Amino acid sequence: MANNPQTPAEAWETLMAGNARFVDSNSSHPNQDAARRTSLLSTQHPFAVIFGCSDSRLAAEIIFDLGLGDAFVVRTAGHVIDNTVLGSLEYSVDYLNVPLIVVLGHDNCGAVTATQDAVATGNMPAGFIRDLVERITPSVLTSLRKDQNSGISDMITEHVKQTAARLVENSPIIASAVARQRTAVVGLTYRLSDGRADLVYSNGSLGA
Question: Most buried of 91, 153, 165, 204 (most Cβ within 10 A)?
């Protein structure tokens, strides 16, 4: 990437172009050489912050064909929000001026599946896994309220939407950046079978 994307629209276009290359098995592996590494010694200017699930099959830099310094990445199981996550995302927006925030979910998500099981049976998992389930439960319940027959894919999509919306609702810093059209927030669901990331939520201008 010769020119670092500066606007939400440019960042979005660059991200999707990288995913298209990955899907087509034509990844270019940009910004991964010694020169790029050296150029980042004292500064960084990522064009996207990707808040995704910790699942080992969801490596953001790979599926969007990115390199060093391109993405500021935050990951938790089930892309669950806490204060540390919000602080990390706010840092990327307020200090690094990142123009695009991406919430990245995926099919067959274990955290959402565990929550679906807990809601259906009333049996909560042990340890701090329970905390994950409790934070995902509102998304699962919202999906069921919309359609009592909703399946795990519907719940995962709803959870991505709910997570992305909450970032704007809970963070005045992110909300202000979106309102000023300096940053956009998108929600994507990733398909493990073909590697494609599909847009399911957006807040902010992605137009040219």
Answer: 204
Q: Give the model confidence (pLDDT) of 64-97 as tens digits.
A: 999 999 999 999 999 999 999 999 999 999 999 9
What's the rounded Cα separation, in Å, for the pair 69 and 36? 8
Whether the per-residue pLDDT at 9 is higher than 70: the answer is yes
Q: Tokens 């005045």 map to which residue?
A: 172
**156 pLDDT more than 60:** yes
Consult the annotation and say whether 29 binds a ligand. Answer: no
CA 71/CA 60 separation, integer angstroms = 8
53 is in an annotated binding site: yes
The pTM is what? 0.93
Structural domains for the chain: 8-203 (3.40.1050.10)
DSSP H helices, the chain, are 8-23, 34-39, 60-63, 83-94, 110-121, 129-146, 152-170, 172-179
Angle at the Cα of 57 (from 7 to 41), degrees rounded to 5?
50
